[in-house]
Design goal:
Structural class: mainly alpha
Helix content: 55-70%
Low-confidence stretches: none
Order of helices and strands: HHHH
Mean pLDDT: 91
CATH architecture: Up-down Bundle
Radius of gyration: 17 Å
């Protein structure tokens, strides 16, 4: 199995990007576009999910990456809540809600699985690749 060299190759980042590509355009259309707080929160959550995955990966440390993935997972939960608010206020249809919630839920499961994998792994990360345990 080849080592992933860049965050763009991570399936979790690709899934987060897809989610952002589906959610972000909704924030430019009314009624969400007129609900400034919700619009900004949804954009922020989408961006933060992707950004935390990328940042954690590029830090080169398993522990920092795991922490960033945990933050991304929390942001995914926040987005799910925002989707419920959008549905409850009739900003989106039930069909759009189900599609986006399903995608966000799949991403949550993927993040959880990857966090569990990293927590069990002996990999320390690129930052520590040439260091001894005593350093």
């Amino acid at each position: 199995m080849a080592t992933i060299q860049k965050f763009e190759d991570l399936e979790i980042w690709q899934k987060a990007r897809l989610l952002s590509q589906k959610v972000y355009p909704l924030t430019f259309k009314d009624p969400i576009a007129s609900d400034f707080r919700l619009k900004d929160q949804m954009r922020g959550s989408c961006g933060s999910i992707m950004d935390n995955i990328a940042e954690g990966f590029d830090r080169g440390s398993k522990n920092e990456f795991t922490n960033s993935l945990t933050i991304a997972k929390g942001e995914t939960g926040e987005l799910k809540s925002q989707l419920y608010r959008s549905l409850d206020n009739k900003y989106i249809t039930e069909e759009i809600f189900r599609e986006l919630y399903s995608l966000a839920d799949e991403l949550t499961r993927m993040l959880t699985g990857f966090i569990n994998y990293l927590n069990k792994s002996k990999i320390r990360g690129q930052k520590f690749k040439n260091r001894t345990k005593d350093e």
